[in-house]
Amino acid sequence: MSHCPDCDRYVGPYEACPFCGAPMERRLPIRALKVAAVLLVTLGLASLWFLARRTEVPIISVAEASAAANLAYVRIEGRCSRAPTYDPATGYLSFWIADPTGEIRVASYRAETRALLDQDRVPALGERVSVAGSLRVKGGGASLTLNVPEEMSVRRSDAEPCALSELETGKELRRVHVRGQIRQLTEPYAGLTVFTLRDETDTVDVALTDDALALGGVTPTLTVGDVVDVVATVSDYGGEPQLVAASGADIILDADAASPFPHTFVAELSDADLGRWLLLRGTVSEVKPFSAGVKLLLDDGSGSMTILLWQDLYAAIKEQAAEASELRPGWEVEVQGELTEYRGELELVPELAADVRILATPALGETAIASPTQTPTTGGGVTPVPTPTPSPTASPTKTRAPTATPEPPVETSTPPPPSPTTGPSAAPTVSAVSIGTIDVDDLGREVTVEGTVVDAASFSHGFKFTLDDVAGQVILLMWHDVYDDCWDRAQVNLGARVRAVGEVTAYEGQLQIEPRFGGDVKVVNPTVVTPPVRAIGSLTAEDAGLRLAIEGEVVRTEGLSSAVKVFLRGTAPEDQGEIAVFIWRNVLDRITSNAGLGTPGSRVRVVGRVQVYRSNLEFVPTLPNDVTVLEMP
Which of 208, 329, 514, 561 is an S-S bond match for 376, by CB 3.0 to 4.6 Å? Predict the structure, then answer.
């Protein structure tokens, strides 16, 4: 009150009227109001904190992360469905969580990421994750930002020890512990290393990304032949199991291990062991060269076993042998490889030079066995090796072959062939025999045949052409060294008429003509069957099996262990389709200007067959001259 109640004069802040002395009523002090306001606010905040601490963050499914929930603070639970990506420079970390309704990306930044790394709470592929954060919905996609590291929990399961043959694609995201030997190292693209691991039962590809190395802080040094223990998650790549390591620390090198394969005695082996990888030790009792390599007879005291060494492998073994000498009878060796069977006989087939260790050499003065020559053979045989099979995309895994073709049989050696030709070879003067008259009685004979190429196929050590002279058909088998030595090789294709001189051999009841060198094969009429040209965008599953021609521009290339995939896109305005061209490495290595296949923007023409693999179209050329690089940027 500002006026006196008795004299009605203005009093101001006085407690008694200065004019009449009447007491004034007390007013509420401003200070009291301030104190009360602070107390009220504090009580309100405390109440909110108390309620917030005891109120659970709502758990939603991925499907419920819609625009209506934008900026909400929610919790999502599921499995880590994609391996984390990490940028050490910015501290940005992201991974994906999947539940039965969908998949969502989770991200964290510098401070939160550092806390997760320090507390070892970065999820690995397949691990169960519960995370709360701010939901962001933008452009039809949703993501979750982790604001408090403590709001994320990761439930890790113990790694299950298992053999590689026990890995199944039906059990994706299972964490396993495997042990094996590194057989191959590849880098399909920058930032991804894929190595093939083998134990005595099977093989599997292991993927290790640069992100995983950065997260783990450990970069293992891996080389072919190393024995390693791997803890990783089973994933699916092209229908085949693949292991994904969460960090470099999950790959442990066993420097003291010589071989992961069991040492076995020959007398203990039977047909039940076919397909297993084994280790044998013994003495070389015989060395038999043949056109594609060497066969050793190994005696370990309990029995003898044939060891099959292909030509390139034998050459590599010679280089690492003492004084780079030939393998000789009497040498003590240790061999690991796959146990196979050919015509009722067990054989051990190593893959790498490291699979053959020379333990002791014979006394000086013993005569070495001559090196194998690339010549045809008679009698006996070599274990057939099926062509591997391709996978559809990303990381370097097991592959399937467009056409599985077993290795043809080859046997004992004949005199060395002449030097490779440097120009067109002279036409044979021997009269050609009718293909229809050739039968099993001609095995081992050298004959001259002439016919039209009606089919072609590639396999790991060469190419096969089917010759037809109306009276019959026969396989023309050209090993890689024979094919490379053939002056007319670019014209040997479907429709061409070919004259060949070679030895008659047989494999699984099928007769073959096996030339000794490139000059034995001559194209008489180079007319080639030209397939129809189709727009890439017009190809459908109904075209599977058709031999066609396409032309397009290289978009990208993906490398596999035994092949490459070149993705072509149509160049015409009306043709914007895209297809993967699957090329085996033995074909790729013989393509002229093949560097253009790895250069985006290159124009390429391809002749091949359309195939469907797991609902994806693929285009598969058979021969090197089926692929032509027209232009490079």
Answer: 514
